[in-house]
Amino acid sequence: MAKMNKVLETFAQQKGIPLIPGSDTLFFKHQDIPISIYYYFNGYLNSNTGFIVNIPLSADQLDSEKALSLKEALKMTGTVEFLKANNLLRIRIKGFKPETSLTKLDETVGILGEQLSRLEIKPSQDCFFCGQPDTDDTVESNKIYYSAHERCKKERAHQLAKEIDENIRTGNYGLAVLCAFLGGIVGSIPSLIALAFFHVLLTPLFIFTPIAAYLGYKIGKGIMSRATPGIVAVISVLCTAIIVLASFYINLSRALGEELLTLDEFIFAISFLNMLPQIIIQFLQALLFTAVGIFGSWGVISVTNRKKLNQVKTLHGNLDNEKDPNPEEK
Hints:
The protein is α+β, with helices and mostly antiparallel strands. The protein has helices at 6-15, 64-74, 98-118, 150-170, 174-187, 189-198, 208-219, 228-255, 263-272, 276-296, 298-301, 305-316, and strands at 25-30, 33-41, 49-56, 79-83, 88-94, 137-141, 144-148. The longest helix is centred in the C-terminal third of the chain and has 28 residues, at 228-255. The two termini are 35 Å apart.
């Protein structure tokens, strides 16, 4: 269970802000501005420690002049970022000293209240799910709180519950593992194309192998259990090893003037030419990028039924004995 940072707890107590059970994110409204704050720690240096303040904005709220004014107003408390693709205003408050952090948090919230009103920057008030106005609730996504309709939250909860039920009833492991393996091989096609045309194995292309293996697992209707990320990771490593060996096989056949070597010839050539260290080095290089691919896609491949169930509970509690908000769709 997530644990709230002590500085944020103190800040909440001073401002009379209720804490959300089980959450490490503080959410409140200041002058109708929805503000989410959480603590981040990415290392052991002061520069990598502090707080992130998020405010979802309505579309097309920031031009260059407004952005410069806001950055100037907040330059003494934090670094301002604008995530245009998400219509998100983000302020990074660096430092880990409690007294300094409390002061900066208080100053940041006060400045935001003044500047957003003065610059006529409008926070988002539309529903996170349907995009319509007149919201009556909030919903959390990636530690950011958005406006939402209660009904839309219920609909999303029921949709997730249906997905869990269907996956458990119709899912499998056997076919899914096979499809994941085939997907991993398909994800290695860019590497094979580079090998065929340029006679070189481009190891950065192995980034695509894990996500391709995961898509194959989904196409094979695999059960989304806690084992799923491990299955995808193991298959990705196996596919990486196969492609690396295939690259040496093809290049060795070319070098020896053979169209294709037999397996015995290939093994003998590796032994005779002492190529095993080269193969291991090439595999480790490729494996590094496979690991990067696994890490980069972890947010996708780790979405299991258990995580979805937690989302259901967060959105609408336990759905037992609840009526589906869209019964006509059954």
